[in-house]
Amino acid sequence: MLLPRDFFARPSVEVAPDLLGCVLEHETAEGLVAVRLTEVEAYAGASDPASHAWRGRTARNAVMFGPPGHAYVYFTYGMHFCVNLVCLGDTESVSASAVLLRAGEIVAGEDLARARRMRGPAVIPSRDLARGPARLCQALAIDRALDGADACVPSAPLRVRSGAETPPRSVKILTGPRVGVSRAADIPWRFWLDGDPTVSVYRPAVPRKRKLVTP
DNA sequence: GAACGGATTTTCT
DNA sequence: GAAAATCCGTTCC
């Protein structure tokens, strides 16, 4: 059954672990692709230096300041999309918190997901199809057109269903620092299912080398 | 399996 | 102008 809007009307730190094991679906003209979420990260609003909402509302992050249960999709690194689900903030008055969907296991439409992820002749292992936030978006064909999409409407193309067990009782949930963030790097707001092969590998934030300027 | 560099453009300072 | 909630291929262990 579809996750109700009330599910998202809580601080993102509470919502994030509860999303593990839930299923994100995206239906397009090409067909349906669904992923069972195995790895997520919580981002608070104004109080979280790592959040896009930290410095206030802009054109890009406007959706995070809206009602919960909507998708916040952003473009980064010049070529990748990442998708969040909007929650409430760390206080009732401050909103703009969200959960980044980092990885999952494809449970429907695997052939379509593989075709979307296909770059060259190399065959992509099933576990890698949605292993990482940008890969997940590519497998589900999520882009900025879905920024602001309501994920709590049954007839909408993007929606989230609860899993058989949410969260799964037989699997331990582990936590750790968020991937690739330089600010607030010590806050353990990354959540994942212990031992799941689709969980992405941890990489600490590393400052990029400046491009060499020609004299 | 880890470590490195390059790709590529939007967004904000 | 610099950084960015990343991915991929290569090169080493």
How would you describe what is shown here?
The chain is an alpha+beta fold and 215 residues long. The protein has four helices and eight strands; from the N terminus they run ααβββββααβββ. It binds a DNA duplex (13 and 13 nucleotides) through residues 41, 43, 50-52, 55, 58-60, 74-80, 82, 84, 100, 102, 119, 132-135, 178-182, 201, 203, 205-210.
Strand and helix order = HHEEEEEHHEEE
Q: What gross morphology would you assign?
A: globular
Name the poorly predicted regions: none
Q: Please identify the structural class as seen in this structure.
A: alpha+beta
Strand content: 25-35%
Per DSSP E runs of 2 or more residues, the count of β-strands stands at 8
Average pLDDT, rounded to a whole number, is: 91
Radius of gyration: 17 Å
Distance between the termini: 62 Å
Enumerate how many helices there are, as a single number.
4
- Approximately how much helix is present in the residues? 10-25%
How can the largest sheet be summarized?
8 strands, antiparallel
